[in-house]
Amino acid sequence: MLLSKLASVIQRLAKFARENRSLPTLGFTHLQPAQLTTVGKRATLWLQDLLMDERAIRRARNDLRFRGVKGTTGTQASFLQLFNGNKEKVKQLDALVTKMAGFEKYYTVTGQTYSRKVDIECLNVLSSLGATVHKVSPLK
């Protein structure tokens, strides 16, 4: 959902940058006025950051894996028992449930939960996007 909305913002901002590429404006740096620049140039700097955010969100999404069916301690012992020790069937179940949940990959090793490092990776890309939006926003 975020990627499609971000793509729309990038398209609109690129159009704005083209339309205002020659419109002069006073630059601002370190909380004080600086030399002249253009509105279009400033917009392209924002675009550059948004494109970096888009790339980071895609990477995070593409790297995201599903916990899969591992049981409460991550051993898959209960599933092995259900399938009379057939490890292939347990792997197939893991792959099937992963696909049904909308993921392409699953973690091969987990504990009771997936690693909380996954949450940190997701929050990092979202906070980066938030920093970009804050920088672009006139309401500070």
UniProtKB/TrEMBL annotation:
Residue ranges occupied by any Fumarate lyase N-terminal domain in the UniProt entry: 2-78
Keyword terms of this UniProt record: Lyase
Keyword Lyase: yes
Domain of life: Eukaryota
A GO CC term attached to the entry: cytosol
Pfam families listed in its UniProt record: Lyase_1
Any one GO molecular-function label of the UniProt entry: (S)-2-(5-amino-1-(5-phospho-D-ribosyl)imidazole-4-carboxamido) succinate lyase (fumarate-forming) activity
Keyword Transcription regulation among record annotations: no
GO biological process, one term: 'de novo' AMP biosynthetic process
Protein name: Adenylosuccinate lyase-like
Source organism: Pogonomyrmex barbatus (red harvester ant)
